[in-house]
Q: What sequence folds into this?
């Protein structure tokens, strides 16, 4: 077949064979019911009934939520289930975060507060489900944004309030007034 390298999976092969849009064929060797056992210590593929799969999955989720010990953390106070983080407080399930306070399920973040589900964000306040952003306040679902207040679902935007663009000086003037009123 033109344009393919030797040994590369052909159409209808690979991990997604048999799914909608792919030609069906036999499963790859060692996959599916009747697959032979591998050497000791390796995870051999096994067939699961959906009920067993769901039960084991729920068990793993419960174990993750119940984790209380921190691993390789430095001076984290009142944190649970964090790993590789430093100087965080009152947070849960942080991974490689630094100086975060009251955050949950964040990865590679720093100086965030009251936020949840962030990835590679810095200096964010009351923000959730965002990535690669800095200086977000009360935002959700943001990607690679900077200096946004009350925004939802933006990507690669700077100096926005409630999803509307502002020039830099107007943004800081308006956001300063709003943040004074937002603080308890």
A:
């Amino acid at each position: 077949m033109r344009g393919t390298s030797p040994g590369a999976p052909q159409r209808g092969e690979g991990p997604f064979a048999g799914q909608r849009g792919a030609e069906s064929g036999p499963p790859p060797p060692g996959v599916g019911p009747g697959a032979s056992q591998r050497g000791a210590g390796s995870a051999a593929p096994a067939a699961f009934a959906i009920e067993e799969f769901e039960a084991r999955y729920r068990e793993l989720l419960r174990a993750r939520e119940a984790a209380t010990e921190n691993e390789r953390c430095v001076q984290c106070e009142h944190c649970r289930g964090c790993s590789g983080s430093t100087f965080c407080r009152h947070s849960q399930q942080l991974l490689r975060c630094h100086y975060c306070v009251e955050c949950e399920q964040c990865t590679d973040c720093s100086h965030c507060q009251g936020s949840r589900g962030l990835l590679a964000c810095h200096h964010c306040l009351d923000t959730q489900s965002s990535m690669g952003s800095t200086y977000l306040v009360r935002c959700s679902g943001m990607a690679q944004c900077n200096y946004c207040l009350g925004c939802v679902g933006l990507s690669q935007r700077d100096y926005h309030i409630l999803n509307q663009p502002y020039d830099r000086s107007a943004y800081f003037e308006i956001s300063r007034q709003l943040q004074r009123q937002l603080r308890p």
